[in-house]
Write a structure and sequence with these properties.
By secondary structure, this protein is an all-alpha fold. The protein is built from two helices and no strands.
Length: 59
């Protein structure tokens, strides 16, 4: 996965020459956080849909 993130970074980001390593770390952390948040949102949506179906079935 790190190689995939490196490829995305190289494709979409133009680093400042003196801060290249630091900007790569920031990019990886931000991308990882975005993935985690996306997964949490999907889980939340699925959980909410399950509750709605259960409520309809009990009525």
């Amino acid at each position: 996965m790190r190689n995939t993130l490196k490829l995305l970074y190289d494709r979409f980001y133009t680093p400042v020459p003196m801060a290249e390593e630091r900007s790569m770390d920031s990019f990886l952390c931000g991308f990882h956080l975005a993935l985690e948040m996306g997964n949490e949102l999907n889980y939340y949506k699925q959980d909410r849909q399950s509750l709605s179906v259960e409520e309809v079935e009990t009525e």
